[in-house]
Write a structure and sequence with these properties.
about 325 residues; alpha/beta; Quinone Oxidoreductase, Chain A, domain 1; Rossmann fold; 7-stranded mixed sheet; 6-stranded parallel sheet; 10 helices; globular; ADH-like_N; ADH-like_C; oxidoreductase; ADH_Zn_CS
């Protein structure tokens, strides 16, 4: 199969022929119909993830058709249209038993722990607990974005941040995750403020429901109930905590490879909450898919660019100069 292969961190990868993945017991192999280009892939390419072993194929948000079914996988067959969370949970540990597959200690992540979806085929382990059947009316490009950015934002907004109608929500960083959070929070009835330095991203945020768009919150009194860092920046975290009202909630979605400094005195004195959010388990997808089917959420609108596998290496490298507005989908 053809795949994007990273040989050295920070060096533009190449598209070349590599062996197709074999189907293991309990797993399936998918023909990748669409996969998203995410900033997490950039972090992996830069060497920020200790799980990656070179050479490596990135890609972790995907949708496709089942090409092979391993022993012990029941209820699924070749040709089924599916997506999967980027966190492939084991399904047998205490966290999985409690429904918290997104923090499974035995999790495997395509594009990080093993070769991912910037390829024509990808393996999905623990398939029984990680596959999500796609509605026929949902196209593969839209479905691919659900596996990481949109699903991650859905859980961050609705289940971790617990955003309610009438609350003021500030979203920092309007890449794919941030724009998804804007759309989902607005659909929940919140007053959403979007913050980004990219005018094109702010324009999209306004289209997706933000009532106010800002290039910075320095000197701005927002009195927010909930803030989200959807990019991953120490500076943004400080801004996010400063605009919170007493007993406000901050949800951290963006990765912080260089760490972060917190004003713990303010955190304590104002009884602020610092919350982490990491993906969403497969069993929680039906609620989100129902919202999409009812027209309350429109993840297809987030897609602003579709590229080929051959265009992917340059697009991945270009993330070093900033995240383009909207979501980029790759069709292998």
């Amino acid at each position: 199969m053809r795949a994007v292969v990273i040989e050295k961190y920070g060096v533009v990868p190449e598209v070349r022929e590599v062996p197709e993945p074999e189907v293991a017991a309990g797993a399936v192999v998918l023909k990748v119909e669409a996969t998203g280009l995410c900033r997490s892939d950039w972090h992996g390419w830069m060497g920020h993830d200790s799980d990656i072993v070179l050479p490596h194929v990135p890609g972790h948000e995907l949708a496709g058709t089942i090409a092979a079914v391993g022993a012990g996988v029941e209820g699924w067959q070749v040709g089924d249209r599916v997506t999967t969370p980027f966190i492939c949970a084991c399904g047998s540990c205490a966290e999985c038993a409690a429904g918290n597959q997104q923090v499974c200690p035995n999790q495997l992540q395509p594009g990080f722990n093993y070769w991912g979806s910037f390829a024509e085929y990808v393996a999905i382990p623990y398939a029984q607990v990680n596959l999500v059947r796609l509605p026929d009316e949902l196209d593969f490009g839209t479905a691919a974005g659900l596996g990481c950015r949109f699903a991650t934002s859905y859980r961050a907004v609705r289940q971790v941040g617990k955003v309610e109608a009438g609350e003021t929500v500030v979203v920092y960083g309007c890449g794919g995750v941030g724009l998804s959070a804007v759309m989902i929070a607005a659909a929940a009835g919140a007053r959403v403020v979007a913050v980004d330095t990219n005018p094109a991203a702010l324009q999209l945020a306004a289209e997706y429901g933000a009532v106010e768009t800002l290039s910075t919150t320095v000197g701005v009194d927002l009195d927010a109930h909930v803030t989200f860092d959807a990019l991953g920046s120490n500076d943004l975290v400080q801004h996010a905590l400063r605009v919170l009202r007493p007993r406000g909630r901050h949800v951290q979605i963006g990765l912080l490879p260089s760490g972060v400094q917190l004003d713990v005195s303010r955190l304590i004195g104002q009884e602020l909450q610092w919350l982490g959010s990491h993906g969403m388990p497969a069993h929680a997808y039906p609620e989100m898919l129902d919202q999409v089917a009812q027209g309350n959420l429109n993840p297809a609108a987030l897609i602003t660019r579709t590229i080929t596998l051959d265009e992917t290496p340059a697009a991945l490298a270009a993330l070093s100069d900033g995240t383009p507005a909207g979501v980029t989908i790759i069709t292998p």
